Amino acid sequence: MKKMMTILVVAIVLTMSFGSFSSFSQTEIIDTTNLSKGIVSIAYKTTDTVTYKVLISKDDKKISYPFTKDGSPNVFPLQMGNGTYKIGLLKNTTGTKYAYVSQKTVVLELKDSNVVFLNSIQNVNWNADMEAIEFGKTLLKTSTTSNKKLQTLYGYLVKSMSYDYDKIPKLTPDYVPSVEQTYEDLKGICYDYSALFASIQRDQGIPTKVVKGYSKFVEGYHAWNEILIDGKWVIIDNTVDNTSRSGVKMIKDPKDYTKVYEY
Hints:
By secondary structure, this protein is of the alpha+beta class.
């Protein structure tokens, strides 16, 4: 199973160099209207063929995201705690060099940092009208507690999903999951499993993370979930349990996982 579950290290790990930036003035494109929810929205439209990225940094931490430049809003979380964030939209200039199209500095002051993990964002992109979310409402309508909702959705995904072993070689570095497509196919890779799970739980008002990193159960880069139950973040790995099928515990031991990014 370990060999078959190897997860796209190249597709996730970014190899850009941010050592030399030049900046130039553009119209305002970074929207901080929903800063109280711990998110920012970036929209920019161009027909050029240049690659664009979003860079969000706080203190010495930096997270980079792919960017869709069709004018539609791309929503990104500010998940590194309260403090000062630098947000930038960048375009490739040459090689691994990028230049700022727009940048903004904001101060995040949330009373409850868990609110960040209730939003629809780029890689957990959902809305109430999606079939996946409607299905989740129906599946969980008789579950009256967060723990029961977790058990019900986890049980369904572990039983019903299929791992898409053929998908990995076709992935591009800017791949982000489609919640609707994953629900329609009931098939995907770990990133897809995690985004579908998070979207349904977030719609239920339960803070849920998509986490990327490493697990002793998987060879290579991996994605799983953390969900807030009874005031405690617990690890859920639908992918591992779906492919193992036997001898699994729903809540995983943190010692078996190494977190790199969370969204």
